[in-house]
Amino acid sequence: MHGWKKAVLICTAVLSGVAAVALVLVACLDLNTADRTASVIGSVVGLAGLVLSLWVLLASRSEAGVEAFGAGAVAARSIGRAVTGNHNQLSGQPSAVPQPRTAPASSDPVRAEGERSVAAGEAIGDAVTGEGNTL
Known about the structure:
Shape: elongated
Order of helices and strands: HHEEEEEE
Distance between the termini: 40 Å
Strand content: 15-25%
Number of domains: 2
Largest sheet: 2 strands, parallel
Radius of gyration: 25 Å
């Protein structure tokens, strides 16, 4: 888990715990006030959950669905030339970036996972992986 996500999770847990303890204390003193306070907190949390779910839904449909994990990994919608190794000898011009298809591109995420992996959502002109290649 990324550092900021862990921090948000911990802060949310702490704030939820504090709110629960506060509601129990208020309920012991005045049940009507605790009821109204819990209603307001529930409404705010429900609306925040709605906003968060819409944000995640809309963000997942964006171009941000391109991810590369691993040393030297490359991921893109279209790739002209990807070189992921060491000591490669390349000469000449790279292949032209492939023309997009006439059909709409898939909204599925493009993921390259692993050391020196290459992934494209559309097409790849050249993919050079490994050590000491001559092209």
